[in-house]
Amino acid sequence: MQAGRVPCGRLLEHVVDVVLHLGSVPNVRDPAAWRLEFPALEQPVHGHRLAYLDSGATALVPRPVIEAVRAAYERDAGAVHRAVHALAEQATLAYESARTDVAALFGVPSDEVVLTHGTTDGLNGVAHGWVRARLGAGDAVIVSELEHHANLVPWQLVCAERRAELRVCHISDAGVLDLDHLEQLLADRRVRAVAITQLSNVLGTAPPIDAITERAHAAGAIVIVDGAQGAAHLPARACGDFYTCSGHKLYAPGGTGMLWARRELLAELAPWRTGGDMVASVEYTHAQFRDPPARFEGGTPNVAGAIGFGAAARFLASLGPDRLAHEQRLHRELVAALRAAPGVHVLGEPEHALASFTVDGVHPHDLATLLDQHGVAIRAGHHCAQPLHARLGLTASARASLGVYSNSDDVAQLIDAIAWARGVLG
Amino acid sequence: MTVHALYQELIVEHGKRPHHKGTLPAPSHAATIDNPLCGDVVTMQLAMEGERITDVAHTGHGCTLSIAASSVLADRLIGLTLVEARALIAAFETMIATEPDAPDRADELGPLAAFAGVRAFRSRRACATLAARAVSRALTR
């Protein structure tokens, strides 16, 4: 970086970067080419080709994201929103560009996008910054039986504090939300909020967010959508009243995420992380806050991470609709292969992105250790959804989850490794 | 270290057909430990006459390693004094915490030394020691 380069020069450089990144995807129509963008896939694991089937826990990161993070540290290394020197200006520009890129992926205005630490951060923000103040004794919050701990524990805390009731909407054994039960739970109009996953991280089912929102609004409740899984595997859109997701499941660095709400609703949200950067002016006894979204980004943010999140949003946009078509094809293949495999039982009726399963005679943890020895990375355990596992009569399951880089070889390697694992412990 | 060192025949056998599975009619000591990471739960019950352990039983759910460890540990504890039991558990936990190529202390640990293979699988060490931790907790009560 030359000394004295002015920020507008950086802007041009940034535009060039964007074009180069788009150009670095060899062929957007060819999923085999997408795979080449993920250097983590190049490493053998225990002497085997890596079949990474744990994108539901965290997705691998493509080169354009790695390059964006590298540039953030090598070049745009200043603090955001405060200093006037060149590196700080560059950092601010890149950080705000990232917000624009993330907003564009989800089709919303960038001033409605709060850059967060992840889905957990966003859910806690809404629980403590909006719902808590509107929850009286005897009011209620609805969650579903599908929920991840991140969309459960914050509601348990605010409900306990406000002496409100936490109601749990039923699902079918297949994992489909029971809308009739939802209506029953909403009927007394004491519900202030419905917090619901966009895509179950265990059963791979997608509750009908628009139908839920319609019913919730009719009963005077708002809808908070946990997009942690859905953002990466369903058409990207901000839905419900508050929508939150994580960067690291969208091929971006960890510790990044976004919270979206319409301007009017964001204006009602109280800041839950207060301090520097989120204030307009401060006196000893009180402070004026900046307008949203800056109001919700107190403290020095994960600047490089956010810049990487923006790069990931551009990367995903560059793949176009083929990305989801590829995943859906492969998902059908994965579910069919697991169902056909001897001794394997798929949980529910997975619709997208992942399949959880059990294997006769092999506990999920043993399975995960054994599969790893064959280069197959899966998740085992309760996947941060202990109540759902109890609902299914289980304590743990194994889960294979897909990403844009997944392919038929990964599925075949999984099935072979399961057969081998059964032999070891059989 | 291979998976066959981890899933030795003795461990697989105890995992499939654990000894002393169930509950005691009148345990003098008991404790339940869970592994929040994976959801495994082990309850160990002990019956003592004076200073000596006369019976042990275990219940819970978990992987081959945690069930086999409960089973082998139960076998090994019966007949020991309290002091001997504490020393055995300390030696086992110390062995599991060592590097994969360290001695397995088979002279002290007997069949529990079969779990030495878990040392190469860092994320699974807690599975092997769940039962031992439950016994430690039971004996401090």
Would you kindly provide a written description of the structure presented here, covering whatever features stand out?
The complex is a heterodimer of chains A (426) and B (141). By secondary structure, chain A is an alpha/beta fold. Chain A folds into 2 domains: 219 residues, Type I PLP-dependent aspartate aminotransferase-like (Major domain) (Aspartate Aminotransferase, domain 2), CATH 3.40.640; 104 residues, Aspartate Aminotransferase, domain 1, CATH 3.90.1150.10. Chain A is 41% helix and 15% strand. Chain A has 15 helices and 15 strands. The longest helix of chain A has 21 residues. Chain A is globular and about 70 Å long. The N terminus of chain A is likely disordered. Chain B is α+β, with helices and mostly antiparallel strands and 141 residues long. Chain B has one domain: Sufe protein. Chain: A, CATH 3.90.1010. Chain B is built from 6 helices and 3 strands; from the N terminus they run ααβββαααα. In chain B, strand 2 and strand 3 form a beta hairpin. In chain B, helix 2 crosses helix 3, helix 3 crosses helix 6 and helix 4 packs antiparallel against helix 6. Chains A and B meet through helix 13 of A and helix 1 and helix 2 of B.
Number of strands of chain A: 15
End-to-end distance of chain A = 61 Å
Q: How many individual domains of chain A?
A: 2
Oligomeric status? heterodimer
Extract low-pLDDT stretches of chain B: none
Rg for CA atoms of chain A: 22 Å
In brief, what are we looking at here?
Chain A is an alpha/beta fold. Helix content of chain A is 41%, strand content 15%.
List the helices and strands and how they pair.
The complex is a heterodimer of chains A (426) and B (141).
Chain A lengths: L6 H17 L7 H5 L15 E2 L10 H12 L11 H21 L6 E4 L2 H13 L8 E5 L8 H10 L2 E5 L9 H8 L4 E7 L11 H10 L3 E5 L3 H4 L8 E5 L10 E5 L1 H6 L10 E4 L4 E3 L13 H17 L2 H19 L3 E3 L7 E6 L4 H9 L3 E2 L1 E3 L4 H6 L5 E5 L6 H18 L1
Parallel strand pairs in A: 1-13, 3-4, 3-5, 5-6, 6-7
Antiparallel strand pairs in A: 2-8, 7-8, 9-10, 11-12, 12-15, 14-15
Helix pairs in contact in A: 1-4, 3-11, 4-11, 7-8, 12-15, 13-15
Chain B lengths: L2 H4 L2 H8 L12 E7 L4 E10 L2 E10 L2 H14 L4 H16 L8 H4 L15 H16 L1
Antiparallel strand pairs in B: 1-2, 2-3
Helix pairs in contact in B: 2-3, 3-6, 4-6
